[in-house]
């Protein structure tokens, strides 16, 4: 649950009559859709108008499920709104429901006030939801109220570590104290607090909510969610996605090899909060550039989630593409391959770089395991169908290639991309290669991505 969508009701209510068939109360926390005020963390990637258009669909879908629950024997639905007047809320969110304005306060206090007010109004069971979980159904709502017959607390965990729903059958204001809101530990902290209060807990199925651009990725593959995204795949277009962090020095050379954006070429630069002029450089070259969550997997997923190309190319900021790379990608992906990559050339003279290039060629062509620095490319539909990159701290490219190749062959283009030798030069060719292979071994032995990342980056710092 997040501040964008949740708040608490004040005693004021609309005059709309709604039959209450049970003492079950569903509270829907919503914001009146207005450009610039909704889904603010999506605005850098989508713009204010598209972010609001998307939010309007989210809140509309949530209220459809609430109405379906109500018409199927549920109880009372109250929309706790903010960001507008009562008349605006009724116009945007529907005059058939109860409406009550939110009060200004922290999220924990708002939840306390909301549930306490509902119980004071005669509720026996209260469920609170936001409006940023498109997968939520009326069946989920029904299940939550059913479980409250036997449990004190019902929680619907979100995949980002928060929760999309909380249900109570009594007023427990202390349940919301000491929670680190808007972090990845909200669900776990709430569960631990409920356990410490000796409350019986039931956990519903986990669902994905939408707060950041990468959260849109599942919607690119799920028309069943009932959301029409404000962008669509354009046939024949290539989307080049470049994750960056302080790459102002390398990015111009890379972008020159990509080419100038046009109707058939889109370049998305997803930055992790650079302190240099990376974003300015990207925009000067006509790229769509925005700041996303740190982590290469998150950045690449964010770019893919808002891309409009039929084909996706994931490119490192220090890697130069070969001439005529676009026909190569289109030809390979229009045949029997589910994905592909280029051969690798390291921008450094000498014997050791050539040995590494030969090893990469063997691994890529015979083991079908290209790495991300070889500029991986896929059909957008296949990338979405396979769920994109897992949000790993390391090995996200290796893991995804292993997953998608189960559905077909991985092609390796004979033309090489040329990648900077800066990693090898800084840490040593032998040391860097050894670290890479140890991480691959650790991955196959089941070592967590967090431990692998700690080992990899820690070993590099010791150089």
What does this structure look like?
- The chain has 463 residues and is α/β, with parallel strands linked by helices.
- The chain folds into 2 domains: 8-203, Spore Coat Polysaccharide Biosynthesis Protein SpsA, Chain A, CATH 3.90.550.10; 213-420, Alpha-Beta Complex (Spore Coat Polysaccharide Biosynthesis Protein SpsA, Chain A).
- It has 16 helices and 16 strands.
- The strands form 2 sheets. Strands 1-4-3-2-5-7-6-8 form an 8-stranded mixed β-sheet, sandwiched between helices.
- Helix 8 (278-284) links the parallel strand 10 and strand 11.
- Helix 2 packs across helix 5 (138-147) and helix 15 (429-444) runs antiparallel to helix 16 (449-461).
- The longest helix is centred in the N-terminal third of the chain and has 24 residues, at 48-71.
- 45% of the residues are buried.
């Amino acid at each position: 649950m997040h501040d964008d969508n949740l708040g608490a009701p004040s005693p004021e209510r609309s005059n709309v009559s709604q039959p209450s068939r049970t003492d079950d109360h569903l509270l829907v926390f919503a914001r009146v859709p207005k450009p610039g005020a909704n889904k603010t963390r999506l605005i850098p990637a989508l713009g204010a108008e598209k972010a609001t258009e998307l939010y309007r669909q989210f809140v509309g879908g949530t209220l459809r499920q609430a109405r379906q629950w109500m018409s199927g024997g549920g109880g009372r639905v109250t929309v706790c709104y903010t960001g507008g007047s009562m008349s605006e809320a009724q116009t945007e969110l529907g005059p058939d429901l109860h409406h009550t304005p939110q009060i200004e306060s922290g999220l924990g206090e708002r939840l306390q006030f909301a549930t306490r007010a509902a119980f004071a109004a005669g509720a026996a069971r209260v469920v609170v939801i936001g409006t940023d979980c498109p997968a939520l159904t009326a069946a989920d709502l029904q299940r939550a109220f059913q479980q409250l017959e036997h449990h004190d607390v019902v929680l619907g965990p979100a995949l980002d570590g928060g929760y999309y729903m909380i249900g109570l059958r009594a007023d427990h204001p202390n349940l919301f104290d000491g929670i680190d809101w808007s972090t990845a530990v909200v669900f776990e902290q709430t569960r631990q607090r409920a356990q410490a209060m000796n409350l019986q807990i039931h956990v519903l199925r986990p669902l994905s909510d939408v707060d950041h651009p990468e959260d849109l990725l599942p919607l690119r593959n799920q028309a069943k969610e009932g959301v029409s995204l404000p962008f669509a795949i354009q046939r024949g277009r290539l989307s080049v996605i470049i994750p960056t962090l302080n790459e102002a020095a390398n990015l111009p050379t890379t972008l020159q090899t990509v080419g100038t954006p046009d109707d058939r070429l889109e370049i998305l630069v997803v930055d992790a909060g650079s302190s240099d002029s990376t974003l300015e450089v990207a925009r000067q070259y006509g790229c769509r550039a925005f700041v996303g969550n740190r982590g290469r997997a998150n950045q690449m997923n964010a770019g893919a989630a808002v891309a409009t190309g039929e084909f996706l190319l994931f490119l490192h900021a220090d890697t130069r593409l070969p001439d005529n790379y676009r026909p190569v990608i289109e030809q390979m992906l229009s045949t029997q391959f589910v994905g592909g990559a280029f051969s690798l050339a390291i921008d450094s003279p000498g014997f050791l770089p050539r040995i590494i290039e030969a090893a990469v060629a063997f691994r890529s062509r015979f083991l079908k395991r290209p790495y991300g620095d070889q500029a991986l490319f896929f059909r957008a539909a296949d990338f979405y169908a396979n769920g994109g990159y897992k949000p790993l701290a390391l090995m996200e490219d290796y893991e995804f290639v292993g997953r998608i190749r189960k559905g077909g062959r991985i092609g390796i283009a004979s033309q090489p991309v040329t990648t900077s030798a800066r990693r090898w030069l800084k840490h040593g060719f032998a040391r860097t290669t050894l670290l890479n292979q140890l991480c691959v071994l650790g991955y196959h032995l089941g070592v967590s991505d967090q431990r692998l990342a700690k080992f990899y980056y820690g070993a590099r710092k010791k150089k």
